[in-house]
Amino acid sequence: MTVYKKDTKPFRMIAKTLFGLEDILADELTALGAQNIKPMNRSVEFYGDIKLLYKANLWCRTATRILKPIFNFRAGNEHDLYSEVFKINWRDYFNPNQTFSIDAIINDSGFNNSLFVAQKTKDAIADYFRQKTGRRPSVDVRNPDLKINLYIYRDECSLALDSSGEPLFKRGYRTRTGEAPLNEILASGMVLHSGWDKKSPLVDTMCGSGTIVIEAALLARNIAPGLTREKFGFMNWPGFDKLLFRKIQDEAYESIKPKLDFKLVGSDMSSEQIQVATDNARRARVGRDIVFKQSEFSDFIPPDPPGTLIFNPPYGKRMSVEDIMNFYQSIGDTLKQNYSGYDAYIFTGNLDAAKHIGLRASRRIEMYNGPIECRLLKFEMYQGSVKTKYQNPENTE
Ligand SMILES: C[S@@+](CC[C@H](N)C(=O)[O-])C[C@H]1O[C@@H](n2cnc3c(N)ncnc32)[C@H](O)[C@@H]1O
């Protein structure tokens, strides 16, 4: 049962992520010592040993989960799928006292129902255990001991163990959120995309539950995002090396920067949101690194430049077209008035409204917020040369 102890040689892993963050995640994996890194669509393939698997779970700010593929096979119909899954020596991976669940994803395949595919896979695993041991493990979709991932592209099937369990964006610090909170991975990805120097002020003037500034503080203080989590999927794997993982955690604690020489600032017009953000920051153990302040966007005066502003304004679903256009125009006006010397990043899913900002974006990064196509737009607010930027709104997109 101790298959993982043998994993001293590099093996293949897949880190899943969100669209637009693949290259950022590849850089994170490079820094952790991963080999043969290949960014793909919403994922990054890489190689490494079990130590790297533990580290990737603890340290990757932009991965949703780390998968360890265990078996590839071809199956064009349910019978082949069942018999191929049944063939695997599942006792190497878990025992019938443990619970499991299957996440199935199908892409351009003869199978057209991922729930059906998951059910067949589950049946094959349960029947395997019943035949070998006389007992079958139970399925627990909410909190399983072992999460198994099945990906089918055409008739190519790949089974993988999910070493993360709960997705990695569940950092554990955010228990209360506001309206439309950002996924932690997306927020972290924006900060990393911005290339912020971790030395000058970083501001979010519509901070809601504080995700952007909290992720920025974790980054600047070199706090591993997984340090607040108690559970990872790999902890239930046979051969889990508790000592090795504890050592990796201890090293992560030792590498934390005790304090920052500058402040991060979060503001929002809602006092309730400011309270939520303050509580979240405290739980993330970066409460002292961030100043939260209730303020209307147009009234807020940022710290002296140079600095970085990153924020995600409402997309205006509940506003009239005219109001949302005026709102985005006023954002542009405030940027021109108050933010010279700043790099301003606006993340929005309202691409039409963004044209009314009235500034030329020097970078446009395509990302998704759930199903919504978004852009992270960069506006360089040069000191003293605002005029050169203040033109041609059609160029925003
Ligand atoms: C999409 S939410 C931001 C979510 C945030 N990034 C998070 O992770 O929770 C937009 C936020 O902008 C704030 N807001 C809207 N208009 C504002 C304004 N004119 N001035 C300041 N804050 C504003 C709202 O109160 C809301 O919290």
What would you say this structure looks like, in words?
The protein is an alpha/beta fold and 397 residues long. The protein folds into two domains: 3-162, VC0802-like, CATH 3.30.2130; 184-227 and 258-396, 3-Layer(aba) Sandwich (Rossmann fold), CATH 3.40.50. It contains eleven helices and 14 strands. The strands form two sheets. The protein has a seven-stranded mixed beta sheet with strand order 2-3-1-4-7-6-5. A seven-stranded mixed beta sheet has the order 10-9-8-11-12-14-13, with helices on one face. A hairpin with a 2-residue loop joins strand 13 (363-369) and strand 14. Helix 3 runs parallel beside helix 4 (114-133) and helix 5 (184-194) packs across helix 6. The longest helix has 20 residues, at 114-133. It is elongated. It starts with 10 loop residues before the first strand and ends in an 8-residue tail after the last helix. 42% of the residues are buried. Mean pLDDT is 93; it is low at 385-397.
